[in-house]
Amino acid sequence: MELLESDFAQIEHLNQIVYNNPRHTSWECFDTQCVIEEFPGYAGTGSHSGELYHDVVDMRYNTLLVNVTHSGSSTEYVFDVRNALWTGNYRIVPTSEEATLGDDEVLVSAETMVGKRIMFTVSGNHRNSVRICFEMSNVGSGCNVKTNSIYIDCESEYEHQFDKAVVEEGRVLTDIHTPVTGATVTLTPCNEHGLAISTGLPKQVVEAYDVREGKFRMTYGATSSVGVYYALLEAEYLHPVTNQVLTAVKIVKVNKVQNNRIIPDIVPQPEIVPKESYTDWGNDEQYKRVLKGSVKTFKINLVVKDKYGEVNDDYDYLNGLYATVTAHKITGGVLDSQTCTFVKDENGFYYVEATMSYRGYYEDTSTLQISIPAQNGYSAITKERLVSHKWYVARNEIQLRSELNRENGADWIFIYSSQIELNSTLTIQPRSDGSRITLAGVKGNQNCILKGDGTFNLINIFNSNAAKDNYFKVQLIGITLTKGSPAVKLSTGCRLLVDRCYFYDNNHTGKHHKGCSIYMPSDDASKSNQELWKTEIRRSVFFNNKGNEIYSLGETYIHNNLFRTNKASCLQQPEVKVVNVTAGSVRYMRNKSHIDIGNTPLASNHSYAKALAYVDKKGKFNGKGPNQLGRNNSLPLFGHPWYNEAYTYAIYYYPYGPRTVIVCSPKRGYERKATGHSSTFTNWVFYDGYEFVLFNKGRNRGNTNRTRWTESELATPVNQGIYDLENEVFEKGYNPAVSRNHSLNSSLDSDII
């Protein structure tokens, strides 16, 4: 709307008012009686006292600019109607009458209308005492009065390649910024004022696809030439409660440009048309959702154009040339770079094929750059484009095995929040680049479960080229392992990190249930090369696994875990319950072990089965070897700096001498100091902490003094995953994109990441 004064806001801006009802009609009236009441100087005297008797010059009356001139028996009224809502209709009636009444007593002898300016001459008895009303409506052409209940939230200006259709995202929101569900958005080509035209961008109609955020994707279509285009976006939404149609509009400016760069030859020769080249990035899909932490091969086409932009059919101009392709982090820095020779396909066209490693890169985007140096008469050219990335999530056994076995597969593989039943052992072994592999759980309504049938090893971590400078790094984070025999088997030359995992109902029948949860094969060779194992186990829960939980070789750090048993069948004599240190060292800190199998005496000797640790002649537990553990209360377990806790309530049958039942029934105040250990230099289990109560010939004394642990202390994990797939949010401290994230660092390996 054209402004007639320099004021930044005037009442004639009524076309900016947004009404709550979708259709609006009203009357804007000029009443001579009201004028003389406010300005008595315009009134006559005597018989003309109630009339507008004097001329009016440029009076502002609401949205009207009024001029009144008296000439004999007639009066000329001139109105500049400064309201974009005026339909062009008006009524003239005697003063104080309704606008819809007839005009029998008011005679219009002449009328002239130019735009929003109307001039007419009024005669008759009421020529100076009239009510002149103008009809206002948002239904008329150009009266774009819309409701303010919803609005379109998107960019006001885009820049696109002119011959490409580009999808841009926006949202439809209420005036209190909440998403609108199920709105329809229409794109209509228009001019800069929002008036529809028949040329320009193709018309589109889409619906909001994201119920939660009110998002829509609008396609801004290709055009035949470069230029500035405008799109009128109109949103329409039927309110489910009021049944009211809510609307919103927005004009979007789209700059359609030619992005292809044509570089002339550095040394053009006379009589020869200068040659120029550019890159065609090939199939656009190859740059979308590239797996984080994977290796990706890109095919980039090469085209020759002359100085007029026409394709030159002689592609052999490119024979023998080369380019450098580089993958860049979105924050800066090089991920990978490769120099590639141009290759000709079966149709005579040239391309370069580059393989980029994204190992250890976990951002959502990166850039890919191709640089062709000045060579063979061509000038240098550098171009780049955006590459998007996503996590790999396995939802079944086939997907999980496929990605693990894929040479260029992701180094972070997420397991969906569900149960995957394995038919055989899942082998994890190094890829040719030696990259670390992580299996991690997705958060959901249940744990991420890998389940066997109790007869085979669930996960076998295998390194065929074990050496001190060639450790294979594997991480298991936020997953559940059950029905394995054993759950995890770890070969030489491996560095394993277990975090937030849950082991239950596992066994190891073939090894007398040694290492039913985590097993490291023991023989003379492995004991002699114990430095090739490094294992960290933390923040995990072990529940009702049969026999010994961890059979340790090399350097093992066990901390902040819960080992819980409440079934007598899970005690396997003579295997100690928690850790068997067969060779190497175990650091054991801030763990809780809890055995409570009730009052029923066992039918055979289970003295070793309730013990926490066994230390062989080449092993150490918290710095002490077997020759230092040959007496009671010598296991470095409780207090500073170890801070472990233990509880054992069980009745054990001893066949030695008189029939004696020994019950570890801790009294209050000692309930977290009841466990046992043994070592290779003695054939006996030593108790540690509070001394076990002896019950000779079955006499029951002191049993009521035990103190149970709380349910929260003994709780098994639920929803243990670390990544919220729907909201794309990591559990605090577990996002691998955060450099050197503490929760993903192994204490045993500074470069575990």
| Rg over alpha carbons | 42 Å
The biggest sheet amounts to: 15 strands, mixed
Termini separation comes to 62 Å
- At the fold tier of CATH, the topology name of the largest domain is Pectate Lyase C-like
Unreliable segments of 5+ consecutive residues? 1-22, 260-278, 695-702
Number of domains: 4
Helix content: under 10%
Number of helices: 4
Write the layout of secondary structure elements.
Blueprint: E1 25-31, H1 32-38, E2 56-61, E3 64-71, E4 74-81, E5 86-94, E6 107-114, E7 117-123, E8 130-137, E9 150-153, E10 157-161, E11 166-174, E12 184-190, E13 204-207, E14 215-220, E15 227-238, E16 245-257, E17 275-280, E18 290-291, E19 295-306, E20 322-329, E21 334-341, E22 343-344, E23 350-357, E24 365-372, E25 381-390, E26 392-394, H2 397-405, E27 412-415, E28 419-421, E29 426-428, E30 437-441, E31 449-451, E32 459-461, E33 472-477, E34 480-482, E35 488-490, E36 494-499, E37 502-504, E38 518-519, H3 524-528, E39 533-538, E40 541-543, E41 550-559, E42 562-565, E43 579-589, E44 592-596, E45 613-621, E46 645-649, E47 651-654, E48 660-663, E49 674-679, E50 686-689, E51 693-696, H4 711-714, E52 723-724, E53 729-730
Parallel strand pairs: 10-16, 18-25, 26-27, 27-30, 28-31, 29-32, 30-33, 31-34, 32-35, 33-36, 34-37, 35-38, 36-39, 37-40, 38-41, 39-41, 40-42, 41-43, 42-44, 43-45, 44-46, 45-49
Antiparallel strand pairs: 1-8, 2-3, 3-4, 4-7, 5-8, 6-7, 9-11, 11-14, 12-13, 12-15, 15-16, 17-19, 19-23, 20-21, 20-24, 22-23, 24-25, 47-48, 48-51, 49-50, 52-53
